Amino acid sequence: MRRADLDLERARAAAAAVPDPEIPVLTLEDLGVLRGVERREGRVVVKLTPTYTGCPATQFIRLAVETALALAGLADARVETVLSPPWSTDDISAEGRRKLKAYGIAPPAGKASVRALFGEETVACPRCGSSSTSRISEFGSTPCKALWRCEACAEPFDAFKCL
Amino acid sequence: MSSTTAALQSRRAPARKAKAGGRTSRPAAGKADAASSPLFSYVVSLADDALVLGHRLSEWTGYAPTLEEDIALPNLALDLIGQARFFYAYAGEIEGKGRDEDALAYLRDEHGFSNVLLAEQPNGDFAATMLRQLLYAAFMHPYFQALTASKDARLAEIAAKAVKEMAYHVRHSAEWVIRLGDGTEESRRRAAAALDELWMYTGELFEMGEGERALVGAGVAVDRESIRPAWDATINRVLAEATLERPAPCGMQSGGRAGRHTEYLGRMLAEMQVLHRAHPGVTW
User: N or C, which terminus of chain A has less Cβ within 10 Å?
Assistant: First the structure.
């Protein structure tokens, strides 16, 4: 393999393994925000997309990726933000969904696009699996989560919102 | 400056041309913007709407009536301030004079802002904040939906991102308006009063200047009048469920797009901009 390709592989591996600062069980790869690695004008460019436009974690993610790239020996690599296509919860990998559930966060249910504006939603409790749950608040501890409560096991829990 | 806005703006480049919109150019600031390209003015107006309303919402941080709302309102604020950042950054590139998002947000005066008057209205009580949010989001959700088809790829991709967030804003504010309107005697009285007070600012959402009309013709901007059926449908449905009466047609307030604001915007900007103006190019 040529050296240039090795650099791209190293950059991808380093960026992919960076944990999300707010949901550290997920890597950026699990979250689906890593949009590609390429070489432009001799420099490695890592493309990231934000989850929510105003998510405060975005800049920490960027810093963490820059640090990871520097540690991988790619100090001159650049991180670039891309918006299109917009990130969706459908981009969270199957592995990411499994990790979320094990961490106590209900993964996003189904396809984001089909959700009606005022439609009812059902979320299964990530602890006991019951679907007898109710929403406490549309907005949870981070922009991407809502606050729910399980009527069966009485535990409150975070649920990843469909976006 | 609220901690929410501050936290969001913490990664900043030095303001390169602090003088461009600074205190010294007070009377000229509005005219200077109006005189620049229609696309620049249009993108700045989208940013100003989002930033001003976003900052208003951030003022609730730490004061909301319940813990859940204390989390929800800053989250709504974050969405709007995030949208504003993307629009300002794009506007700065269009202008090509080295003004970045910070220069546009922090170094323009009241008359240089072109947001709708609805966005700058004070928070009032919780009912007023929720009514203001519903009236705005019920417009911006279908508006961004339509803007995703813009011939301007940058605007289309920012809109595609924002439309998903505005859907939550509509739902959240609608649920509260229904709960307050169809609630206790006091909550109903407050919701009805807020609706009455804010209604006269809704006409401006549909206003377009000459420059914006030209952009609509070019397939870049969205015809605001085309959003009316969707806005009416959402508002009528929510008000009916809230058992609140839709206010009768009345004279509509106007002027925000031209930089003529209610007295509230200047005070809000004074607080929002003070840190950046006192310490130009500050970072933390």
Answer: N
Residue B284 maps to a domain: no
Which one-letter DSSP state was computed for residue A84?
A: S
What domain range includes position A98?
93-160
Statement to judge: residues A46 and A106 lie in one domain: no
What is the overall mean pLDDT for chain B? 89
Q: Is residue B25 part of a domain?
A: yes
Q: Please tell me the predicted confidence (pLDDT) of residue B284.
A: 64
Residue of chain B nearest A83, judged by CA positions:
B157
What is the number of other CB atoms lying within 10 angstroms of the CB of residue B219? 11
Number of domains in chain A: 2
Q: Say if residue B21's pLDDT is above 60.
A: no
Average pLDDT over residues A108-114: 60
Residues of B in contact with A149 (CB under 8 A): none
Q: What is the rounded CA–CA span in Å between residue A101 and residue A160?
A: 10
Model pTM score: 0.84
Tell me which residues of chain A, numbers 59 to 118, contact chain B at a CB-CB cutoff of 8 Å: 59, 83-88, 112, 117-118
How close A5 comes to chain B (CA, Å)? 30
Within a domain: B252: yes
DSSP B81-137: HHHHHHHHHHHHHHHTSS--HHHHHHS--GGG----HHHHS---SHHHHHHHHHHHH
The pLDDT of B74-80, averaged and rounded, is 94
d(CA A78, CA A82): 13
pLDDT at A113 over 60: no
Q: Where among A35, A62, A87 does a domain terminate?
A: A87
For residue B166, tell me if it sits in a domain. yes
- Whether residues A74 and A101 fall in one domain: no
CATH number, domain containing residue B77: 1.20.1260.10
B274 lies in which domain range?
3-278
Please report the residues numbered 113 through 142 in chain A whose beta carbons come closer than 8 angstroms to any beta carbon of chain B: 117-118, 136-141
What is the token pair recorded at B177?
């308006």
What is the C-alpha to C-alpha distance for residues B284 and B282, in angstroms, rounded to an integer?
A: 7
Asked if A55 and B82 come within 8 Å (Cβ–Cβ), the reply is: yes
Query: What interface predicted TM-score (ipTM) does this complex get?
Result: 0.76
**Pair of tokens at residue B234:** 């959402």
Judge if A109 and A146 occupy the same domain: yes
When divided into structural domains, chain B yields a total of 1
Beta strands per DSSP E along A58-117: 78-81, 105-106
* Whether the Cβ atoms of residue B142 and residue B227 lie closer than 8 Å to each other: yes
